[in-house]
Write a structure and sequence with these properties.
mainly alpha, single chain
């Protein structure tokens, strides 16, 4: 039975009992009336029809619900019989107006003598109603059995309707004169639900105050790891490793034992070495690796070796220097971590924020940075003796910038490292971070520490796999590789020249595939590959300088729009950006959805052409794209 329907049934049953008692209290007036009817009896008949419909919906042949036990089944059947009997007695009150005074007096005496039988009906109806209502509220309504969260997630409309129905039921119970033990129990159950609902609403307000629209944007934007890459980081040394060859080349050697250090660390119980750092050059794939770890199926099982019987809470955050200010700030990190912890463990909300300050500030309330830091510390301190432990993953320490304007980067690094000390040496917590190999971070997490890895030194196998797959999907390249082994050797050149930088490999593969499209010979492709700058900044300049003259202005406009806008420009903005005729036109153009969609597709394709693939437009789930 649905929660809203359940509460509606319970409410109508309580109303029926109250109506029956009103009928008894007005039995004299009914007896004195010539029709044997009154407003109270008509109300009872109406309520009885409502209850019968609700019972049929809840327990009838077409209902998905079944009687939970014989006791409830007997209660429902008895309630139906007693209601029918009560209505039968009311029908006996009705009679046509008699011209005989004697006959009228006899009829009135008979009506009054039925009062005891009607009273017995009411008592039985009340007993059955209480038992059915208690069963409904305690077993069906969310919150009594831990399903309140699920109801709220179904939508605000259902939540509001249920709250209203419960409030109506509570009002009906308060108005009743029934002082039986069953009625008192029912009142307590409903009161407990309303109290818990109020607490839930307050907790939800806290979570809404912590949330911000960009909270998962960077994580969602990070590319998923290419198939067969990065598997080594979660691979047990005892696992069987698959070999394999293809037409291009054999698989490269698997990473060294250093690659397995991460899995060992996840399982370890060393509280004094509870931090693991992933270092990597720009473009080495740090964020992709961190996302791979965060979503890997083995992560939780590996942590269980350390956690034991404790429940594992996994929280993650991806800094993004080119995003909104909150995405690269301590404020964003704090709000994100607290939201991920508290939304699954709401009992910690009053621990984190004992003052419930958000309930005063309204919808526009925002937590201060200091209050968030205090809240996180209280949560971590509180759970020392609790059955919880935390795995916190933070990507891009080098992208942290807690100021609106750029200041000394090294001071920013010190600020962040000072904050992260909150997590150090905690038996109930493991912290995994990634960063470029800046000296400040290396000094903190590398010197004298064994729990770190340099990603760019461990990805030769992954880079070779990626290059093989990327070039291997091109039919022209595969045909050439079959006839000339020198084409296959291009993969080895890519691996050697990449120096562990995945982004360089992607750009290099783009360049080679463009050459193949232009029917370049093997020597042309080798020359093209060897002329590519190894430094990413120089590589970007190389690509920009290779943009055709007729596209250079368009490319510059789109790039300037992308880097200068405080929010992501929509795809259609790029579509109209280089259409001067439409931009200067005074005529309002009506465009349907199909035309807009086609324009968006053309804009994406055009950007790829004018930028030589250096940047792309993508769809997102946030309204901007």
């Amino acid at each position: 039975m649905e929660a809203i329907a359940a509460v509606g049934l319970a409410t109508s049953i309580i109303q029926l009992v109250q109506s029956a008692k009103t009928v008894i209290s007005t039995i004299k007036e009914i007896s004195n009336s010539t029709s044997g009817d009154s407003a109270e009896t008509r109300k009872f008949r109406s309520l009885a029809r409502t209850v019968e419909i609700n019972l049929e919906t809840a327990f009838g042949p077409k209902s998905a619900s079944k009687y939970p036990n014989e006791e409830i089944k007997n209660c429902v059947e008895t309630l139906r019989i007693e209601i029918e009997g009560f209505i039968g007695e009311l029908d006996n009150f009705r009679s046509k107006r008699s011209n005989s005074v004697l006959q009228a007096c006899i009829a009135m005496v008979k009506r009054y003598s039925r009062r005891d039988r009607i009273g017995n009906y009411v008592n039985t109806i009340q007993q059955m109603s209480n038992q059915i209502s208690i069963h409904i509220i305690t077993t069906t309504v969310p919150g009594m059995d831990g399903k309140l969260d699920k109801l709220i997630s179904q939508g605000a409309g259902l939540e509001t309707q249920l709250s209203k129905n419960m409030a109506d039921l509570q009002s009906e119970l308060r108005a009743t004169t029934d002082t039986s033990k069953e009625n008192s129990k029912l009142q307590q159950v409903v009161s407990d639900w309303v109290t818990r609902k109020d607490e839930f609403d307050a907790q939800s307000g806290c979570l809404r105050a912590l949330y911000f629209p960009e909270i998962y944007r960077r994580q969602d934007d990070v590319k998923q790891a290419h198939e067969e890459t990065f598997k080594w980081v979660m691979c047990d040394p005892n696992d069987n490793k698959d070999g394999g060859t293809n037409v291009l080349a054999g698989r490269a050697d698997t990473p060294s034992r250093k690659g397995h250090a991460f899995l060992d660390w996840l399982r370890s119980n060393d509280a004094h070495h509870n931090v693991f750092c992933v270092f990597g050059k720009p473009g080495a794939g740090k964020s992709t690796l961190m996302r791979f770890i965060a979503h890997h199926g083995r992560l939780r099982s590996a942590l269980e070796n350390w956690a034991g019987d404790r429940h594992i809470v996994i929280a993650k955050y991806f800094f993004w220097n080119r995003g909104e200010q909150i995405q690269r700030s301590l404020l964003g990190l704090l709000r994100s971590l607290l939201l991920q912890i508290l939304e699954h463990h709401r009992f910690l909300v009053p621990v984190a924020f004992p003052g419930q300050s958000w309930t005063i500030g309204g919808d526009k309330f925002t937590f201060s940075k200091d209050s968030l830091m205090d809240a996180l510390k209280r949560v971590l301190d509180h759970t020392v003796n609790q059955s919880l432990c935390f795995f916190i993953l933070i990507d891009g320490l080098d992208e942290f910038n807690d100021q609106e304007q750029n200041i000394n980067p090294s001071s920013q690094e010190v600020i962040l490292l000072e904050f992260l000390k909150m997590f150090h040496d905690r038996p109930c917590l493991k912290l995994c971070v990634s960063t470029r190999p800046y000296q400040t971070f290396k000094k903190q997490y590398c010197e004298g520490q064994s729990h770190w890895l340099a990603l760019h030194d461990l990805t030769k196998s992954d880079i070779k796999t990626y290059a093989q797959e990327r070039l291997g999907k091109d039919e022209k390249f595969m045909k050439l590789a079959v006839d000339d082994i020198n084409y296959g050797s291009l993969v080895d050149e890519i691996v050697k020249a990449a120096e562990g930088v995945f982004l360089w490999v992607r750009l290099a593969c783009d360049s080679l595939l463009a050459g193949i499209t232009n029917a370049d010979h093997i020597h042309d492709l080798q020359l093209r590959l060897r002329e590519l700058p190894h430094d990413l900044k120089e590589f970007y300049e190389y690509i920009l300088n290779s943009v055709s003259p007729e596209y250079q202005k368009k490319s510059a406009r789109s790039l300037l729009l992308a880097i200068s806008s405080s929010h992501r420009p929509r795809i259609l903005v790029h579509h109209y950006l280089n259409d001067s005729a439409r931009l200067t036109s005074k005529n309002v153009e009506r465009v349907d959805f199909k035309s807009l969609h086609q324009a968006s597709i053309r804009a994406k394709e055009r950007i790829t052409v004018v930028s030589k693939g250096l940047w792309k437009l993508t769809w997102t789930a946030y309204g901007n794209n």
